[in-house]
C-alpha cells in the first residue's frame, strides 16, 4: 500500500475523531456553558448582519402576495366609494326637482282646501296637439283615477286648463292659453264678468285677453281675474285664479275696452298639476252658466 492512501485514511479518521469530540463537548452544555458558545457567538456576529441584509433584500419578493391582496381590497373599497358617489350625485341632481314638486303639491293642496276641491294629483308627461287644438299637455292620470273630459285642471299658481280627452291611464288637457280656448272670468273686486281668450303662446310673454260683458266698465291695471264658473262646475269651477290685469286698451272700431292678462301659471314649466274631480259647484245647479 502506498503512503498516499494511508495518509488520506488517517486524515479522514482524524476528522471523524474531531467531530465526535466536538459533539461530545457540545452535548455537555446542559451541565454548564459549552466551550463552543464563543465560536457560535463569533459566527453569529459575522453571519447575523449578512442574514438580516438578505432578509431585507428578499422582503419585497416575499411581500408580493400581501401586496396584491391589499390592492384587491383597495380596488373593492374604491368601487364601493364610486357607487356611493354616483348615488349622491344623482340625488343632488334631482333634489331641486323633488323640492319644487313638493312645494307645488303643497300649493295645490292649499288651493284645494281654500276652495273645497277634491283633487287627483298628476304630472305632465307630454306636450302636443290634440284634435284641433295646438296647446295641450298629457298628464299621467285617467279614467281609472276618476278623471273624465270637462274637468278643471289647476296647479299651485292657478288655472291650467280643462280635460278634453281621457283614457284609462292618461288625459289630454287643453291649456287656457290655446288660441281656441275661452274661459269665463270675473274681476276679483268688482265681480264684473267677462271672457278670457288665449293667444297661443306658451312662453313667458304669453298673455290672455279679457273682454267684459258690460261695455261701460273699464278694467284697471292690477285687477285680479278669477274663473266665473260653469253650470255644474264643468268645465271650469268658480273662483280659481287666472291672472292679473297688466294693461288696458281699446280700438276705435270697438266700444269696449279689453285687458291684457298676465297668467299666474308658467305654462312653459308645467309639472305637477291636479284635476278637480269634485267641488261645491258640481253638486249645485244654481251657479251662473259660463262658456264651455
What can you see in these coordinates?
This protein is an alpha+beta fold. It has a domain at 100-283: Rod shape-determining protein MreC, domain 2 (Thrombin, subunit H, Beta Barrel). 35% of the residues lie in helices and 25% in strands. It has three helices and twelve strands, in the order αααββββββββββββ. The chain has helices at residues 3-27, 37-62, 64-115, and strands at 118-127, 136-139, 152-154, 159-166, 171-175, 182-187, 193-198, 208-212, 224-227, 241-249, 258-263, 272-278. A hairpin with an 8-residue loop joins strand 1 and strand 2. The longest helix is centred in the first third of the chain and has 52 residues, at 64-115. The protein starts with a helix and ends in a 14-residue tail after the last strand.
Features:
six-stranded antiparallel beta barrel; Thrombin, subunit H; six-stranded antiparallel barrel; 292 residues; rod-shaped; disordered C terminus; alpha+beta; 35% helix
Catalogue the unreliable spans.
Answer: 284-292
What is the H/E string?
Answer: HHHEEEEEEEEEEEE
Query: Which secondary-structure class do the elements indicate?
Result: alpha+beta
Spatially, the strands of the biggest sheet line up as 1-2-5-4-3-12
Q: What is the CATH fold-level name of the domain at 100-283? A: Thrombin, subunit H
Task: Describe the protein's topology.
Elements: H1 3-27, H2 37-62, H3 64-115, E1 118-127, E2 136-139, E3 152-154, E4 159-166, E5 171-175, E6 182-187, E7 193-198, E8 208-212, E9 224-227, E10 241-249, E11 258-263, E12 272-278
Antiparallel strand pairs: 1-2, 1-12, 2-5, 3-4, 3-12, 4-5, 6-7, 6-9, 7-8, 8-11, 9-10, 10-11
